[in-house]
Structure formats: C-alpha cells, structure tokens
Amino acid sequence: MSDATRDGQDALIPQIRIMRRTGREQRATFFELFFDLVYVFAVTQLSHHLLATHLTWTGAAETAFMLVAVYWAWNYTTWMANWFDPDTVPIRLVLTFVMLASLIMAVAIPRGFGELALLFACSYSVLQIGRNLFVVVATPPGRFHQNFRQILAWSVLSAPLWVAGGLVEEARWPLWLAALAIDLAGPLAKYWLPGVGGTPMSQWAIDGHHFAERFQLFIIIALGESIVLTGVTASGAEMNLETGVALSLSFLGSVALWWLYFSGASPVIVRRIGSSTSDDVGSLGRDIFTYLHLPIVAGIVLMAVGDELVVAHPGHELEVVGALAVLGGPALFLLGLIACGVRVGHHIGPASFIAVGLLLAGVPVFAGQSGLVTSGFVLLVLGVLAVVEHRREARGASATAEATDTP
User: Fold this and answer.
1) Calpha distance 299→67 (Å, rounded)
2) Any stretches that span the bilayer, and where are they (predicted)?
3) Residues 170-189: pLDDT tens digits?
C-alpha cells in the first residue's frame, strides 16, 4: 500500500480497541480461516443442489442466484474484517453470529426455493443487517461511522423484499431479483441516500495485501470443494481404469485453474492495489473483488459439477447441459480472470481469448462425446494456456528487470 493510501486510512478509521492496527501489513487471522469453514459447506451445498436438479435451466438459475447471495454475505464480512480485528472478543462474537446465520442459510440451500425459502431469506437478511448494525453501534461519529450507516440503510431497504419473496411463492423470483439487485447496486451507487449523497471511494481504505489474501483463500475453498466432490464421487463408484483416468483429469484441471489464478492473475492484482493511491484503492477493491471475482468462483463451481458428472459416468456420452458444465465452467473462470486483468490495466495476451473461444465452441462439438474425451480437451486447453501465460509473464519480468538495471 502506498504512503498516501495509508495516511488516508489512518485519517478515516477510528482508533478504537476493536480496530486493526494501522501502519503495518495485515494478514488473515486464524479466526477468519475458521469463519471460512461455514462457506466450504455452503459451496458444497450449491454444487449438490445443481446436481440434484439434473442440470435443468431452472436448477441452474436457482443455484446461480443462491451462489451470488452466499458470495455477497461472505464478501461483505470480508470488507468488515479488513478494518476490524478478529483477534478481539467483540469481533469474534460478531463473526460467530455471522457464521451461525451463514450456516443456517447454507442448510436451507437444497430447498431454498421451496419450503425453506423463508429460512434462506431471513438468515441472509439477519446476518447482513446484524453485522452492519454492530459497526454503526460500535464506532464513534465520523466519516467511517457515516459510511456504515449508509451501508446499513441499504441492507434494511432490501430486507422486506427478501422476506416477502420467502413468503409468497408465486412472486418469489421477481421479489428476490429486486432484493438482490438492490444489494448488488449498493457498492456501485456508493450507498447513495437522499440528502446525504454517496460515500467517496477515497474513504473505502483497504489493506490490499490482506484483502487479496482473503479472496485467494475463497478461491482455495472453491477449488477444494471441487476436489472433495470428485473424490467422494470416485470413492462411491467402481474404481476401474476409466474412473481413475477421469479422477486424474478432474484433479489436474483444478491444478490448472490454481496455476492460472495464483501464478498469473493474483500477483498482478496485488501489485496494482499495492501501488494505488487512496482515491483508487477503494474502487479497485470494489470492482476486482466484490464483482469480478464472482464469475471466477462461479466458474470453479460449475466446473466441479461437470467433473462430478464425468467421474460418475466416465464412458457415457455427455448431453448438452453436461458439456456446458464441463466446458463452460473453465470458460467462465477465464472470463473472470480477463475482466480482472482489464480492470487493473494489465495487458491480456491473445491466448486467453483463444482459450475461451475454444472452450465455448467445444460445447456443441463435445455434446454427444464421452466425458473422458471432453475432460481431456479441457485439460489440454488449460494446460497450454498456463504454459503460454507463464512464459509471457517470465519474459515481461525479465524485460522489466533489464530496463531497471539500465542506467
């Protein structure tokens, strides 16, 4: 983080006991890692829900909607923990409350659009309002306090629509879409309120290294769920050569996604945020992490579902929806990486666009082909892309070093 950003953060954040100490680089705490365990379960529930619907369009829409809600709950809590110290007792108690509400929300996911819709909606609304209300009560008057008053107001605004959608099945989709639209629009609108205005982005001071680390850990959660899902599926199937090959291809596909994110996109994002000014760091954090990481996570979850189909029936021909999961998941993941790169002003090589095009064009081609063949094609595309991007980044780093050494 630049000195200007740190000075702005020191001026904005109230110096009270429950806040993180400013002036030094923050790291994820053990309690934050403990907090993430609930979301491991939530991501697993989402994958199982999509599989239980047999990959119907209705099931896909429900899963996508609940994924955004789950991600939004985790994302808002991550923003809060960027400022508040999870090693203090009050913050641990608040995070425990959010964990419990998140656990209840995750339990409701399989029937989140059925008889447990009200439970899903209420648990989501309660955790959002409760967490933001705590910040308003716990902080002294000032710009930071005012920012969270406006955030709380937007959370309260959407809550009636969430509850109404949980109660009225016939109007559930329009009510919940309106509620989620309000929640998603809040950061873009800077939590604007009549007579108050919006919250300036220069006041959204974040520790870029801590923030990047937290979202890196969420990517690990999604990738870990993919490995668990395919591993459990393989253990319940007949362990023959085809199953072994399918499991190996799925695992190596997860490794390829990890490589593309952690050796490619993530370091670029960290460097860009670390060198940002106080006027830029808030908007970068909002755009890259709050919004543009969502397709990355969604792509991993969708690919995990496709991998489960292949491991369960490696020799069977994929239908269109199966091919869409196996190929569309990594394509969505790559589109998220491309969007993040564009947002930080990083040059995107043509290989990434070619890879997305090949994966999407392969959906009609591989519909009707065996899952093993399709997974092999995905791994080939991702593997080649990882090699090309690694070499490109290495050349770029070498050129930068040479330019720096030149007098």
Assistant:
1) 11
2) 29-51, 57-77, 89-110, 116-139, 151-168, 174-193, 214-237, 243-262, 288-306, 318-341, 348-366, 372-388
3) 999 999 999 999 999 999 99
